[in-house]
Design goal:
about 325 residues, alpha/beta, Rossmann fold, UDP-galactose 4-epimerase, domain 1, 2 domains, two-stranded parallel ribbon, 11 helices, 13 strands, about 40% helix
Amino acid sequence: MSQAKILVIGANSQDAYVLSEILAGTDDFIVATSLNISKSKAMHSALFPRNIVIHTADYSTEFFVKIFSDFDFKQIYIFGSISIVNDRKLTKKDYFNSTIQLVESMTEALAITKKINSVIVFHSSSVEMFGKDLLNEQTESTPFNPQSFYAEGKTLAHMHLKNLRDKGDCKSINGILYNHESKYRKSDFVTQKICQGVAEIFLGKKEKILLGNLNAYRDWSYANDLVTAAKFGMDNELIGDYILASGTTHSLEDWIRNAFAAVAINDWEKYIELDANLLRSGKEYVPQASVSKARSYLNLQQTISFEALVNNMVIHKIKGDGSNAN
């Protein structure tokens, strides 16, 4: 049986790459599962050669039974859900398969293999579970009001693990993750789209960036900070629910301005073209995350500023390091 202690469900995710980066140079490495082997295996092989990537057609109970029989994991990180909130090409079943169905299959397999009490599970929950009417600061006890298939699935998975934990059946941490970014961010996220666009404008390869609502507000963190806090909680078995965020909000216009500032362009407005087709449906919200619990228990820290985060992502795109997760 392999000595690998850490399972990451979702090899293609940004957070899987970030955790691999954090573990680089230590004795630990990860076994990661993927529904799309084409890019994740090559990426992990190139960046983190000790990692093992296992492809599966679906996250069934049978798949997890086999993997739990082959490996003796101590920690499991669930990063495997679909990451786009409102993808019109996807159905409710697609979203639920990657959230609640995945988590139920995994915990059932842990019970079948009699390993459910020997592991600790981290689940990446989401700010989207709170819904849009965020009138007050969000804490770990703020009621959920999911308004998309993505958020519904995340909420059900979150509550499934919480209920098992409350009954003493599974040690788990639900990390309620707000927006977080890194050089591994997928190219279909607006933050990476902006950084890529700014890099191409700087290099003379592009003239405009098409965007929707510049007044959308988000709480953006450096992904490494949130994953480091999650790992601290896992290593110390600090089970519970935690909001993982920066505690500050910025508009998309703030992101754009800082992205162009990274290449010393101040008249950024002339490079932006608004497209109504890119507007998100539904009511926008302004997150107000309370991070006091995560700072007290998980040692959550902000190691770089918002401005530095945006700058670093633009510079990575200019250098063309090719480290986007897919």
